[in-house]
Amino acid sequence: MMPSANNSAPAEPTIHVEHLTKDYHLGATVVHALRGVTLDVYPGEFVAVMGASGSGKSTFMNLVGCLDRPTSGTYLLDGIDVARLDADALAFVRSRKVGFVFQGFNLLPRMTALGNVALPMIYSGVPKKMIEERAMAALALVGLADRAGHRPSEMSGGQQQRVAIARSLVNGPSIILADEPTGNLDSRTSVEVMAILQRLNAHGITIVLVTHEPDIATYCKRIVRFRDGRVIQDQLNANRRLAAAVLAELPSEEPEVDTV
Ligand code: ADP
Ligand code: MG
């Protein structure tokens, strides 16, 4: 499956998984969380992963994000067979190639927005003098340059998620993995977050986003549906909505950046 519109030589997939399985052992019982998932995600895609609770979406994201290892199957991230990497090499690949965005934002409460965004660069050894500049640039990309000195408690949920998106970008990842990024946000703020993700995607960032909200999936380019640890549907979303246009139609409100 290759939904790219590119008619030159086919690009290498960013994510290539084949017959991926994951079992969890709970005492004497085994939970088959993934039962053989085969999927390619190409550069520039924006994929929504949908499916009922317990269908394996988060397990899939954890494997793709190199946070966990599969029970069996193949996974190539940018052509790298991650199953062959030891723990240190896996952590290195994860920090350079994958940006994570979570439902609960996962920001450190005592750090400013700038400090939170800088963290992945400190762990990955970016030279000190470049860290602040890059963190500021990432905050500017999500429209929060003027909130750099604020702590998470001084920001709205939407702003906190935008800080988390900025943090996910700073090491120049091949892919952003977002697990229910709008799950804690009201509907308008959710559309604002989708507008930012669509803008980043338009600039070439590949995104895989888990959501159980059909409305959120309509902003993605491709929708993959899981059931009982398997992919049961995989289709391009021809009627993709543009979040910026939807926002422009919504009754005007105080812009979110001015509501602290
Ligand atoms: P989803 O994100 O679609 O709700 P999950 O990937 O979280 O689904 O879970 C898939 C299945 O694996 C569920 O039955 C869940 O209970 C089980 N599961 C997930 N994580 C663990 C774990 N760490 N230990 C045991 N079972 C787990
Ligand atoms: Mg989940």
Overview of the molecule:
The relative contact order is 0.18. Helix content is 32%, strand content 25%. The protein has a six-stranded mixed beta sheet with strand order 6-7-8-3-9-10, with helices on both faces. The chain has eight helices and ten strands. Bound molecules: adenosine-5'-diphosphate and magnesium ion (MG). Residues 57-58 line the site of magnesium ion.
What attributes does this structure have?
alpha/beta; 6-stranded mixed β-sheet; 260 residues; binds adenosine-5'-diphosphate; 25% strand; binds magnesium ion; 4-stranded antiparallel β-sheet
Oligomer: single chain
**Which sequence of SSEs, written as H and E, runs from N to C?**
EEEHEEHEHHHEHEHEEH
N- to C-terminal distance: 45 Å
* Radius of gyration (Å): 18 Å
> Which segments are poorly predicted (pLDDT under 50) over 5 or more consecutive residues?
none
The ligands found in this model are: adenosine-5'-diphosphate, magnesium ion
DSSP strand count:
10
Sheet with most strands: strand arrangement? 6-7-8-3-9-10
